[in-house]
Amino acid sequence: DSPVDQGISYQWLDPSFRQYGTLVNLMPGAGSGGIGKIAPFTNRPNTKACARSGNAPPPSYYEQKGLEAQLLETWPSLGAPGNSLLTNIAGAAFNAYNLLSFHRGGALDAQVRYGGSQAYANYVYGVYTGAAGFSLKSTLAAASAYGAMFGRYHAGTLFSNSYPSIPEVNVANITQGYNDVRNGTLCSVQ
What we know:
By secondary structure, the protein is mainly α. The protein has five helices and three strands; from the N terminus they run E-E-E-H-H-H-H-H. The chain has helices spanning 59-73, 84-100, 118-132, 136-150, 168-183, and strands at residues 10-11, 24-26, 38-40. Helix 1 (59-73) packs parallel to helix 3. The relative contact order is 0.17. Residues 1-47 have low confidence and may be disordered.
């Protein structure tokens, strides 16, 4: 019996998940050939503290949201029966809804809605997009586009050379969250 059949271990749902560096937990009952509930691999050590998060959800929550969107958008690659085109469309809509929820005051905005630091808000945006399967380049380009339209920064803010509508520190925090979710090294909310 594989560890998955015993419901006690973790496996890659699909080889394409390896590129994101995140193990997913096949919850008991999923079986070796089935697709059960998924959850981020929570038994990995989280030894580094997150930036001030306020009352925002932990990074694993944003990871889960991203994984759910990625799973729906790639459903046919998992060999699931049924109408995969409608599932893919639903996945794309779910992903778009989640991305829009990062706007100022939105449901996934860790800074304004939950009182988290700017560093934490940018970090969890990177976590979400990394888990959802976006490239780092498109993640940062989208953040820069948002910054160009809606950003308000203090005089003297050091902006990124590559993404000129957002501060260099935002690029660093988004990149850190993106890389942490891919490497399975998310920070812990203290």
